[in-house]
Amino acid sequence: MDLLIKLAGLFMLASAEYCFVSNGCKETLSYKESMIADLIIFTVSTNETDGFKRFMQSVEAYDLSVKVLGMGEKWEGGDMRYRGGGYKINLLKHALKPYQHDDSLLVMFTDSFDVIFLGTKENIIQNFKTFNASIVFAAEVFCWPDKSLADSYPKTELPYKYLNSGGFIGYAKQLYNLLEENRLKNKDDDQHYFTKLFLDKQIREKYRIRLDNKATIFQCASGATDHLKLIESSDNYYALLNEVTGSQPLVLHGNGPSKLYLNAVGNYLSKARSSSSNDCLNCPSINIPYVGEFPVLLMGIFIPFDTPFMEEFFEKINQLKYPKNKIHLYIYSKVESHTSIINKFISENKEYLSVKKIEANEGIDESLARNLAIERCKIKNCKFFFSVDSVVHLDDPTVLQWLIQEQRGIVGPMLLRPYRSWSNFWGALNNEGYYARSFDYMDIINGDKRGVWNIPYLTSCYLVNATLLPLISGAYENGKLDSDMAFCQTLRDKEIFMFVDNRIDVGHLINPEDFDSTKVNPEMYEIFTNKFDWEQRYIHPNFSMSLRDDVTPIQPCPDVYWFPIVTPRFCKELIEMVENHGKWSSGSNYDERLAGGYENVPTRDIHMKQIDFERHWLYFLQQYVRLLQERVFIGYFHDPPQALMNFVVRYRPDEQPSLRPHHDSSTYTVNIALNRRGIDYEGGGCRFIRYNCSITDTKVGWLLLHPGRLTHFHEGLLVSKGTRYIMVSFVDP
């Protein structure tokens, strides 16, 4: 009869990798098998979790066949975080009934949510036969759930001393008889059940039960991660080496608290990544432009604190290549400083499906606001929830398109603070649940390894498939944790995977630390903290051209060079900063700001120290002006440049319209035009007397660079109308 059953299997669909018994699949004929079946693999899963999907990917990677028990059924096995699991063993016993007399067919059982395969059927069978056993159980380093039984185990010098029921393999007949003769209830603990059977010497010898003490088949990771090392296999994939036993396990079980470890190494194992090229082999392809109908989503914008460069933030939101009539907009702001920017954005974008705004004066805290966004997404029947914080700048407008194509439950793009190792994800957690650097974190953020990564913490920007929303209602609130920590903790507790994708660089993070929105034009002070964005806003777009060897510098007068260096916005905002300060010098020779109190050639000016901008300006000289100086004044190097006099000069017909001929107290002088000749003022300019060369057609944001002493005696020409502003530095006095 058994042979007929096996022969009948030849006429089934050989392409089926697995079947769900509860969905009507014939129990004895749902797997690929040869003329004489040699191995059947069973697992139990009542729903298709992220862990189950990963398990099945590993099954496919090694061309295995798995029969899934219990899919779609109610779980009757109790709370698996503590004790339980008898239900899965009873499902297995029922599935084994057709094979109860077969003493040649091998049957393997494994958990699925926290298990991945690392080898082929042939590897498994070959390693099993070395045990000279009928049944082999996985072994682990902890005696659980009853520590008092530890001394009852057979002695071994290896650390894997204790039975683990998450994986076992044996002959069908012996396994069935073991389960039939020793019954358990659905909510009984399966590991305690098998432990008691194994420790009964009579049963152990009757069924020739062994433990996989050397992890040749089953590797239980809890308490053993220090023993394990990723290595390159001979087939250009990654394998796992147990450095204590010297084995390369074929089934990896992330039991107990080792699930995060399994998630991390699972990014590499089961043919997920090439060890030779580091290509991601499990990553979905991305089609840009997006093909198909755009699903409706809710985009939640969260502004939990004062954030610099919010104008650019909203500009990039506006530029997203996703139909606004497919987006419900939800904006939460905890601060009042950005209210005008928010209102302007809303008033200029009427195409959104709906707009919900929560302002600071409504008194709703961040955690509640985020939870309300999820509820609104459910009410609006959205297909996705896209969460983006104010620190995120989405530089690639197609980001939403390719995140949707990821087909993950929760996925976000990798985002970095420019020039820093700070990102929007963590590769590992420490014992307290906070940041720890994973073994591959630097490789990922530096782009040395590209792919989609299963990680334990993701923040600031991510897309959530709406099918998960019922599971994460209220996820952002936890009395002991910030909203982001609470959210990720909820996901980990529910074993919902978070993924970060670094295959495409789509944006970056702003650093909000030390941002003082009370200052006039506060972004001007962000040159240290957010240098990348500062440059985007304030450095002239043609600045880098001046540094190229194939570009000849403009020289309007002998040894006087002219370069574009800052944007008109920089000039406008610097004028606003000094005028807001308002304490212009008198223009007399007495100047209390100077050591000694005497100014030989006085101007009406405000020093950078007076507006708390001196440190920033000196850095500007070092980072940008010095590069130009070294280009044209060949052979002179001084890094960093020194400048004691850095000031904005104001010329007016009724104050100080001009400046008498003079030398500057500098090795070289920086002179930047801050406003427009012929519009903001008339007249003005600079005349180099020795060469009888005048520069009057100044350009906003352009820098004049000239020697300060001996050769370049010069004067400030008369301003006949309006107000002229220039920024001056005497460098290396």
Topology at a glance:
Blueprint: H1 2-8, E1 18-20, E2 39-44, H2 50-61, E3 66-69, H3 86-96, E4 106-110, E5 115-117, H4 121-129, E6 135-140, E7 162-171, H5 172-181, H6 190-199, H7 201-206, E8 209-212, E9 218-220, E10 228-232, E11 238-242, E12 251-253, H8 259-265, E13 297-303, H9 310-318, E14 327-333, H10 339-348, E15 354-358, H11 366-379, E16 384-389, E17 392-394, H12 399-405, E18 410-413, E19 425-426, E20 428-429, E21 435-436, H13 441-445, E22 452-455, E23 457-458, E24 461-465, H14 483-493, E25 498-501, E26 507-509, H15 531-538, E27 554-557, E28 560-564, H16 568-581, E29 605-607, H17 614-632, E30 643-651, E31 659-662, E32 668-673, E33 681-683, E34 686-688, E35 693-695, E36 702-707, E37 714-716, E38 719-722, E39 724-731
Parallel strand pairs: 1-3, 2-3, 2-4, 6-8, 9-12, 13-14, 13-16, 14-15, 18-25
Antiparallel strand pairs: 4-7, 5-12, 6-7, 10-11, 16-24, 17-26, 18-24, 19-23, 20-21, 22-25, 27-28, 28-36, 29-30, 30-39, 31-37, 32-36, 32-39, 33-38, 34-35, 34-37
User: Which value, in Å, is the CA radius of gyration?
Assistant: 35 Å
What class do helices, strands and sheet pairing give? alpha+beta
Number of helices, where a helix is a run of at least 4 consecutive DSSP H or I residues: 17
Task: Tell me the overall shape.
Answer: elongated
> What fraction of residues sit in β-strands?
15-25%
Helix coverage percent of residues?
10-25%
Question: What characterizes the major β-sheet?
Answer: 8 strands, mixed
The tally of strands reads 39
Distance between the termini: 102 Å
Q: What oligomerization state is this entry in?
A: single chain
Task: Trace the largest sheet across and list its strands.
Answer: 15-14-13-16-24-18-25-22
Which ranges are low-confidence, i.e. pLDDT below 50, for 5 or more consecutive residues? Answer: 1-17, 21-36
Mean pLDDT value? 93
